Amino acid sequence: MTGITAPERAAAQAYARLLESTQAVLSDPALAPLAGALLTPPMAEADEALRAAGLSGNEERLLHLVAALRAPAGARR
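The structure corresponding to this sequence follows.
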């Protein structure tokens, strides 16, 4: 990915980890009741990374970065 700063990459990665953690917790009936406690750390990490990258409130840019991060290597711009 060109044109992405290190803080933006960190924010996109933290957001992706939050999504994956959320999916894992909520898909397991035994873990779902503990979602608040289990997801607090990845939410805090993502919030801090978004602030550090200046992406708080800029969902369009964040989602673009996440999509670019997850794109196959040959499809990245």
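The radius of gyration is 14 Å.
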